[in-house]
């Protein structure tokens, strides 16, 4: 095991040098039903994720408490109905009815209190019963499903929750389009967290439950914002369901990141029986820490409801980022009262993950955001629906702006009910996400749809109704009907192209942004494209993809370089797409991601990373600082030219010990992308490598890249050719986030075929079998070709899921059909930790 550890360490050290944040060991925080619990407020929240009985299919009478579900499968949420192969496009996923049932006994101490079930997302049309009583019916799969279950609880005995979910095609609610015609997949199930919220009968409401324009719950907005001071407005909505009138106070206390009190606000509160009231107030924060992508500073706002005797009856905490955003037409995007100095470059994101579909654990969402921010991205478009609250929390924390989309994709239904449900979705996505500093734009229009002009006007109006304060903006396509209602238009830049709905005429009052760029298909039936390169196809296709995303060899197509050659009026763009994912309307997955469906990086990922600033940023939890990466694997089929990605001013490349060194100097004051792709011509010679190998001088054959700033080496990356495969390597792709023993959390574990020196053997066709011992399960099976798993480009990943017991988890990886000379197995120990949230 000691030697295996040394080999794994060697493999890690061979990755490109980067400088990591000092906050890297911080455990991320995830909100629960829209808030963070505060002790001694009386408000409690429990994870209801573990221990559901599940059936994929119809079941008459399954809502009844006495229904016999003993033959059903047991699952924990999030659950996506099924495990899928990594190649699962073309509607191979299940569509239809499914059932979930859970038993729990409420604590006696909860009597006289109010209890809500809060589902973050149930795909499709759903119904929720408690003890046989229908408590909620919901249409749509991307926003909360909330039920007040207080009247139907049975005290001192077991209660039964039953959920029916149907992800069948249904044109009556958005998105509405049949999955067979859809560029993503619906997947299904209770695929996000479920919470049980317990609090006093005088309480701060939930904005998604109350259904009040710009109301319900907590609303934090801002007036004048500068480095000198910021006006912070707080609206708090309180409901009284007790049997008497309530008199007391709402107290708001703002704390900085270190826990120091900054300012406070107090308002009197009087609420009659069965009534609700909103109280509001504004405070000034002197010399605020302003939120930005490069300094995502978060305050903590504590909100309390106190009775006339000063006793706290309810309360919770929200994280607050103070910032102002403005879109100023020809003058571009302004952040915190200053013009933003460069284009905002980002990517689109579907929730889709390998094997589990949309049913990601919170830590997987956080790791997605972390990986994208590590790559230097600063904006994410939530294509094409509001995404998991955990992802929004991560964007707040890591410094990613977000374009929040309403559910919709190339579909319209003339039935009035459809538009009404779109309007409801827009209202609820604003209510859910309005307190996130990461929200950059609302996108309330239906993606790529020729909707009626009055619809566009109405949704723009709804955004203003739901967010009637400064720094709220919405965008739509530049040539869509009703575009005149929006201050931000989506289009390719005048010097670029590659998509529909673009304009060649700019209005001085409008700010422009490219919502999707980079995809380059031959036609929309075949979908052949130099931008769609599976990681399994190796380095040459991945090099072609990365070069196209950086700077196409032919003019008139939007790329990273083109977006840096626009006027200030065009403020950036989002790549299509961040990750490979499944689709309904095509047999092939989308292979255009900069990472695959398991979030293993392609070469284009490092090209993006090389565009981030070279300075170390201590304000980021994400990686920052200088980097250099050799996009070359030294295989017998590797190109003679060597491609290097780096954000350094100078790069030295050496081939072989005592070999010739070539030097690249970044052009000074050049237009275009910050760090052009570096190509060292005619460097790699496979015959020279062969000669050194035959002479037993393996250590002398390598590529060494050194990144220099101000004449000093600040980053290095070295690549050796992989020799005879002798063993496996095994590591957890956890981004420093521990696995929680909550029955829901997951982590990707990666096995690699390697030689004696830890160099990954990219060219091999092994299959790897995974085994696990201890408190965890493998989210994989033979049916989905995930265990055993084929090795692709040297690696085979698998998902590991925790149980409810913390402890040491041993993962073992071995090649199928072992023999005298096959690679040796590897073992990895992961320790799961006590969960942050209590479970029921």
Q: How would you concisely characterize the structure shown here?
A:
By secondary structure, the protein is mainly β. The protein contains ten helices and 45 strands. Among the domains are: 2-14 and 724-833, Sandwich (Immunoglobulin-like); 634-719, Immunoglobulin-like, CATH 2.60.40.
Structure description:
- Keywords: Glycosidase, Hydrolase, Signal.
- With 840 residues, the chain is mainly beta.
- Among the domains are: 2-14 and 724-833, Immunoglobulin-like; 634-719, Immunoglobulin-like, CATH 2.60.40.
- 12% of the residues lie in helices and 32% in strands.
- It is built from 10 helices and 45 strands.
- An 8-stranded parallel beta sheet has the order 25-24-23-22-29-28-27-26, covered by helices on one side. It has a 6-stranded antiparallel beta sheet with strand order 3-2-4-9-6-7, with no helix packed on it. A 5-stranded mixed beta sheet has the order 38-45-44-40-42, with no helix packed on it.
- A hairpin with a 5-residue loop joins strand 19 (325-327) and strand 20.
- Helix 5 (416-433) runs parallel beside helix 6 (453-466) and helix 7 (539-550) runs parallel beside helix 9 (603-609).
- The longest helix is centred in the middle third of the chain and has 18 residues, at 416-433.
- The radius of gyration is 27 Å and the shape is globular.
- Residues 1-24 have low confidence and may be disordered.
